Amino acid sequence: MSGTKTRLRLRVAPGAARPAVVGRHGGGWKVRVAAAPEHGRANAAVLALLAETLALPRSSVSLVSGGTSRDKIVELTGLGPEEIDRRLASAGGQENA
Q1: Can you tell me the distance from the alpha carbon of 32 to that of 65, in angstroms, rounded to the nearest whole number?
Q2: Residue 58 within a domain
Q3: Looking at the predicted structure, is the pLDDT value of residue 97 above 50?
Q4: Per-residue pLDDT averaged across 14-43, rounded?
Q5: Is 3 helix (H, G, I), strand (E, B) or coil?
Q6: What percent of the chain stands above pLDDT 90?
Q7: Does the structure show a pLDDT above 70 at 62?
Q8: DSSP letter string over 41-61?
Q9: What is the CATH number of the domain that holds 59?
Q10: Is residue 16 in some structural domain?
């Protein structure tokens, strides 16, 4: 499964008090990051949060689209969609998501 690539839709809320996976948002996930949306800081924070939450190396998480938008698509290498959803649901407190 190491070569598995999965794309994930995100809705990002920058400037939050603390970074967190909030939960489901439409067909994707909502995340909060403390970084401001300037000079790519929020994007870097989103990728770092996902890598940490999903227990993936930072190099396995990349931004595909939405660099200047709250709606982003990231690509994750090494996990399938079911495992990603399970880990994000657990982090977001949605065990039955």
Answers
A1: 18
A2: yes
A3: no
A4: 95
A5: coil
A6: 91
A7: yes
A8: HHHHHHHHHHHHHHT--GGGE
A9: 3.30.1200.10
A10: yes
The closest alpha carbon to 48, from 70, 83, 40, 68, belongs to: 40
User: Do strands 71-77 and 61-65 pair parallel, antiparallel, or not at all (unpaired)?
Assistant: antiparallel
Q: Which residues pair with 31 in a beta bridge?
A: 12, 21
Environment class of 51 (CB within 10 Å of its CB; exposed 0-12, middle 13-18, buried 19+): middle
Over range 32-61, report the average pLDDT: 97
At which residue do the structure tokens 């909060």 appear? 32
Q: In which domain, by residue range, is 63 found? A: 5-91
Q: Work out how many domains the chain is built from and give that number.
A: 1
Does residue 96 lie in a domain region? no
Structure-token pair, residue 80: 């399938």
* pLDDT of 50 higher than 70: yes
Of residues 24, 78, 69, the one with CA closest to residue 46: 69
The 3-state DSSP class for residue 89 equals helix
Residue 97 lies in a domain: no
pTM reported for the whole predicted model? 0.91
